[in-house]
Each structure stands twice: as structure tokens, then as C-alpha cells.
Amino acid sequence: MIPSHNIKSIKNLNKLFNYNSSNIVIQSFYSNSISNNSNIVHNKNDIYTFNNNKNENKNYINNINSSFKSIIFNNENKKSGKLFFSSHVKEDVGDMKKTTILDIKKKYKDNVPISMVTAYDVMLGEKGTTNVTMDQMIHHCRAVMKGSKRSFVVGDMPFGSFETSPSDGVKNAIRLIKEGGVDAIKLEGGKRQKETIRAIVNAGIPVVGHIGLTPQTASNLGGFKLQGKTSEEALSVLEDAKELQEAGCFAIVLEMVPEAVASSITQLLDIPTIGIGAGNGTSGQVLVYHDMLGLYSDFVPKFCKQYANLSDTINNSLKSFKSEIETRAFPSPSHSFSMKESELKLYWEKIQTLNTNKINDNKQMNEFYDSVLSTNKNIISQNNLLKEKKNSINSNSNINNINSNIKNSVNNIDSKNNNINNINNNINNNINNNNTNNVTPNQLVVPDKMSFGNSNKKPKIAVIGAGAMGSFFSAKLAKKNIADVWMVSSWKEHVDAINRDGLKFYNLDGKEENVKGIRATLDGMQVLKDGPPDLALVLVKSNSTKQAANTAATIIGGNPNGAVITLQNGIGNREEIESALSDRGLKNHVWQGVTSNAAIVVSPGLVKQTGIGGTFISSSSFLQSQLPKPSTIEEKIALDTFNSILNESGVHSDITYNVEGMVWGKVVANAAINPLTAVLGVPNGVLMENEYSKNLMKKIIHEAIGVCNAKGIKLPYGEDSDEAFKYVSEIAFKTAKNYSSMLQDVIRGQPTEIKSINGVIVKEGEKFDLDVSHNKMIMEMVLSVSNSRKQQLKFI
User: Fold this and answer.
1) Fewer CB atoms inside 10 Å of the end CB: C or N, the chain?
2) Active-site annotation, residues
């Protein structure tokens, strides 16, 4: 539902701005949309608010109206931490002293640039600003004044309220002051409004002028176009400014005029000028709030600098919300309420006596109850963790015990350090003897706190993602029955085929194996039926990481000793997962790794391995040294155990202490191979058959190496581009028959990972002012090919 007048507060707006800066100006417009896709025309009927106080800014913002313009002028903090009041008022007068025109004049006199931000919205749905009435503006003014206690508020005179005669202008200005409650008014127009302005000023009402581009009469100016671009036009704007000053305006807005014109006008006037699209020589500057923060991406005015891109953030958030609902990732246990198990049992006994057509089978009823009971336990566990975190933050009762705890910890360090070498030696011996002594991962000696290594049961692993690599690792982990494997995917046909017939896996020799030990599901909550997993393995495309991270948090959250590991392509995936866990108050470890294995899903329920390579895993907890700190010993043992599970399942794996180098090394390889195969439509090995593709690969690699060197990343093959090309070539030869995932995405018309691979190289390279032109070119080519393929599929 969209109300005709929306006066909900923008509660978090104050967080976006630093109120300790010299001036903060919030300016909100009543506005319109010039097209259905939210292209923006800025500067409409408005209300200005000049403000001096941090707390007042918060109060004002929390009552901000969708249809007004306000300007908040905020002084620098005093050394005492208090804000300046009006220049003519003593400091001890009080926090609620009203800001006056004198504050603005003082800033102008002291040559302090005035910062202005425009909050802009389109809640009334008018086609243009000329439709706005006095009654509407009075409504907007009242809404602002209810939240503004110290601000100097200026109400904008709507079109038709002052053009007819000076007497009409005075009459409506008085209405805006009297009924709207504002302190001053603003009106558009140059010397033709001189007498009206003079009459309003003589009536005791302060006036802000507005010249250059005047939105209310833009059609008369030929549209929203630059004004004053010829000498004759520039002199006319200057004459307007002088006439408005002479008529009594205390400030003038200059919109869309050349910088030379605006600068000269500012020098020739004795009152402040606020520029919007008027260069850097005015007394102050204004940017439209929505434009500056990128709330609309379809149109950005030339004079606007975008400091953020909230349009994508908002759209992606809405998509994620919808996706999480559809995949039941939201609400998670941390967003849900539990009930006592005794009450749940009593409730269940009673509803079993009810006649229902939904569940009439006892087995089905019992399975449903088990699921409900497991979910309820998970909610209780999650809520207990959140309570513990809250209590640890808010409680000060343990302060007196800190010193004694520190002493105890110090006393224990020596004994723990003495055991480090023995523990690591035991781990290495277990791993090295894995083949000769037939030691399985379940036989490793692991502390009771860790999920892996429990001799009473197999570890439970949930693979999130059922694409080529998700299917490959699921098959490998399940076929030797050394882990209880779940697969979570939104691909219904694939899930149904696996549950019905098992996963058919073809190895490099073409031998078919039918893996029956995988439980596939569309709903991540099903994984929790028999308890949360010990490990969640994320293997989705990087553009789906956020959704997968939320799924991982949902299913691993009930096991504080469980871990999440990502083997995805690209940069930033681990951080995305860590953020999702942290947002829910979870402290589970997040591991990261890379793999050079290759596979392709031939059809639902059938995956074929097309390349073999190493897999390297690690944890950010002990990246600095091969000898981990005592606090990470248990995590290291668990990671070593998972490493053994991979090797036992036939995936050659090792632990690395340079995971960043390994991840970026994989990025460099992917950047050189994947996009070229996607553009040329060939398997990996074809790239090595002609000099043209190899030369382009070398150029892409050279640029990527430069980025890694600038970031101080140590790649596994060093800093030499030739060595890097040899490394990448070896991967291409080993996976010669493989069709890269990027090529598969292009063929299917699906989003690619190009922005997480070459796009990251371009982004990081531009930060260091490096030449990344070849990476940028191939990225744009893939995006173009991908988009063209989508268009083709629409007609198939």
C-alpha cells in the first residue's frame, strides 16, 4: 500500500552523515518522476531547514516528510564536545535555542563552505511540480515542523502561488508562515519577481531566491538545460542575482549555470549562494540525496557524484528476501520462537486426536513431529547462544574476576605450549600413516569438543550447491560411506533424480559409479531433521554466495562446534559467509580453500569428471604460522581431519598456510582460462592450440600478477608472469576436455562469475592505477556474450 502522504521517519539517515563536520545540510524535495523507470528530475517544490544541533538533526530526520526540502546547517563541535549555538547567543542558554539567519550569515562571513544534502522522494505521484498546491505544501511544512525544534525552516512557494501579483505572493507567503509554521519562504524566478520579493520582505518574511534553472518553469526554458552558457544569458543571470539581493533575499540558490558565471556572481554579491550544478566557486554546495547515494541507477545528473550505489543494494536485498523465503532460509531459528518441549509434546498429543485430511498416515505424522521437535530444539539452541552473547556484552558482573582469569590463563599457557608439538606430531603421523596403516578419519584422536572425529558416528556434511563441483564433491564424499552427505539445491530435477536413482558419477576413465548415499533436498531445513551438520561445504557460483551463506548459517547454527568451508571461485566469498554468521550472532569457524578439479553436469542426476587437480584448504585463524596458537589447536585438528576425509574419498587435498595466495592464484588461472573459453565457445585445452589465445592469456595474467604484487599477495608460482603462465597452462592441459563453468553459464543463459574474477582484478587494479585493460576488455566481452545469449534464449 502506498499512502498519498508518507511521513514515516528515515531513522538511519543520520548514520550516513558525520555531524561533526563543519556543515551538514539535509535538503528534502517534494518531487516527481519523469518516467516509469524512476528517472529523476531534481529540485522540486521544497522546504528548507537550517539546523545547528546534532540531537536536533536526529529529531528532524526521524520525522522527515517524503515531500519537502530541508537544509540543515551544522556547526563544528566545540572542544567541550558541545555544538555552537547562534552566534549572538551565550553557550549556556540551552540546547533548544532556535537557529536564526544570523548563523547562516556568520558562516558566510567566515568563508566556511556550506554543505547541503537533498533528501528527495516521489510519494505523491504527481507528473510535475506545477501540480503542487498551497494546501499540499502547508501539509508538508506542518509535518516538518512537528519534528523540528531548533531548525530554521524555509517553505517553498508552489507554482501559481506568487506569479499572479505581489499581493497574492504576500498572502500565500503569510499562509505558509502562519499555517505551515515555517520561518521563511523560497520562491523561483529572477528580476521579474523583484517586486513580489520586496513586498514579502516588507511584510517581515525572510526570502531565499532561486535563479538559473528554475524547475517550476523549466518548460519555458527549453527543459532541464544549462542556463547562462552565452555571454548574454550569463549577464542576465547576474542581473537576476543583483536584483534579488537588492529586493531583500538573504540567500540565493544557483542551479545549472557554468562555474565561471556562478563564481563571479558569488564574488559580486554580499549574500550566500548555494550551487547545484554550478561549479566549485559558490558559498556552498548541494547534492540530491537519492542521486548522491545511488538510490536510482537509471539516471544520474552530470553534476552529481555518487558516493554509494544503494539502488543495487536495495534491489539485491529485496531479491534476497524473496529468495530466502522461497528456500526457507528466512526466518531462521534466531528469528523464531520456541516452546517448552513438555508443552510441545502435550500439544502434539492433543492434535493427533483431530481428524485431518492433511496428515492421515501415522508414519508421516511421526516424521513430521520429529522434524518439528528438531526445529524447536534448534531454535532453543540458537536463542540460548544469542542470550549468551548479549549477556557477555552487557554484563559487568565478571569484571572483578578478569585479573584472576588472566593469571590462570597465563599459568596454563606454558602447559598448553608444551603440548603443541606433541599434538601436531600426532596429527602428521596419523595423516602420513593413513595409507600404510589403513587409518581412517574416524579413528583420529580428536578432543571431545570438536565435531569431526567422533568415533560414535560418521561426520555429517551438507553440500550447498548441486552444480558441477557440488555434485562432484557430494559423489566423492558419499561413495565410500565415510560421511553422511546431504545436498541442498534449488534444482528440483537434479534433486529428484538423485533421491530416486542415486547420483550417477563418471570418472576420468569413463567408468560409471552409482552413488546412493546422498540425501538431496530443496529445503535446507530438512537437513536439521536428525540434527545440524558438522560441516557445511559451500559450492555455488559467487553471485549466489549471499543466499548460500544464509542457508549455511541456518543449518550450521545449531552446532556451535560445526564449521563452514567454501571452495568457490572468486574473491570475497569467505567474507560474505562470515558476515552472514556474524549477523546471526554465530561464532562458527569459516574455512576457505581452492580446488582445480573439473566436472560437468551432463543431465539431472548425472555428473562427469573432466579434469583432475589439487585441493587446498585452510583457516584464517592460523594463516600467519605453521605452528598455530593454542586457541586454534582444536580447529586445526578438525581441519586436518576434514583434509583426511577428502583424501580418503579420493580428492587429493592438502592444508596451506597461504590461503590468500592460493585463492588469488586460482583467480589468475580462472581469469586467463574461463572468459576466453566462454567467448570462443571451446573447451579449456583448445586455448593452448594457437598463439593468439595464448598471447591474450599472457596479457591477462601479466595484469593480474601486477595487481597481486601491488597488494602484497604471495602467489604459489611467485611474481614472474612466465612462471604464472606455465602454471595456468598446466591447469589448461589437465582440464583440456573440460567446458569451463563460465562457458556452461553462457550456453544456459545464466549469470556468470566474471565480475568476481576478472572484475575483481579490474577493480583492485584501478585502485593502484594499474593497466588492467585486457581484463576489462574480456570482462565486457563475456557480459556482452552472456546478455546476447539470454536474448537468444527468449526466442527459442
Assistant:
1) N
2) 255
